Amino acid sequence: MLVQVSELRFLTPEGHAILEDVHLRVEHGAWVCLVGPPSSGKSLLFKLLFREREPQRGQILVDDRNITRLRRDRLDALRRRLGIVPQDPKPMQRTAFDALVFKLRTLGFAPDEAEERAEKILDLLKLDDDDDETANRLISELDMSKQKLFFVALAVCHDPVLLLLDEPFEGLSPEGAQQVLDGLTRLYESKRLAILMATRSQLWAQRSGARLVYLYDGHTHDSPSTQKRSGEI
């Protein structure tokens, strides 16, 4: 088991329970989609998984390590085994290729290997199209779907064991969402890394073929709420 969350509870400073009793399991090599409406706690759960925030109750095991008890040096080492794409990544004024190589060199990869890895992940996610020279354009100049795929590439170029992917379809047209989903499918089939994806869109979650877990009213569920939710693509 790569991720095991049990009896997780998180309260705001005002005492409001965002997560009341959350249970979640992600096996090695599995693709799991966490589906829930806005403000249901999906992004918060990701922050708890890499200990940007800490819960009031519950256990969080990631790669056989108890996140809440890790020393800082071991926590940093574990975080390097994760790939994280937040809901709103910070804009970057680099080309896709240069940004990937820069990250890999920072992590200690030799120049030749860094460039080879960058080329391979750009090719896998179809971000190296010669027609528009995507890989050599500034990231801020790419269309939204390609920007989202770039940040996926940035998160996984060093081969993490787990990709945490927050709202990958938000703000996209159906065509753009399909492009992102196609890229994620190629990534998953090629690398078989574990993916935990959070989205408000039940439609695209179902199309991914992932195992679905629903988060609403502070709890995780095996089926969606019968109450109509807004925000689905």
Secondary structure layout plus pairing:
Layout: E1 3-11, E2 17-26, E3 31-35, H1 42-49, E4 57-62, E5 65-66, H2 72-79, E6 82-85, H3 96-106, H4 111-124, H5 144-156, E7 162-166, H6 174-191, E8 194-199, H7 202-208, E9 211-216, E10 219-221
Parallel strand pairs: 3-8, 3-9, 6-7, 7-8
Antiparallel strand pairs: 1-2, 1-4, 4-5, 9-10
Helix pairs in contact: 3-4, 5-6
Please characterize this protein's 3D structure.
With 233 residues, the chain is an alpha/beta fold. Helix content is 34%, strand content 24%. The chain has one domain: P-loop containing nucleotide triphosphate hydrolases (Rossmann fold), CATH 3.40.50. Strands 6-7-8-3-9-10 form a six-stranded mixed sheet, with helices on both faces. The protein has a four-stranded antiparallel sheet with strand order 2-1-4-5, covered by helices on one side. It is globular and about 50 Å long.
Structure described in brief:
This protein is α/β, with parallel strands linked by helices and 233 residues long. Helices cover 34% and strands 24% of the residues.
Number of strands: 10
Separation of termini?
Answer: 31 Å
CATH architecture title: 3-Layer(aba) Sandwich
Q: Which regions are unreliable across 5 or more consecutive residues at pLDDT < 50?
A: 228-233
How many discrete domains? 1
Widest β-sheet, arrangement of strands: 6-7-8-3-9-10
At CATH level 3, the topology is Rossmann fold
CATH homologous superfamily designation = P-loop containing nucleotide triphosphate hydrolases
Q: Helix- and strand-based class?
A: alpha/beta
N-to-C SSE string, H for helix and E for strand? EEEHEEHEHHHEHEHEE
> What is the C-level CATH assignment?
Alpha Beta
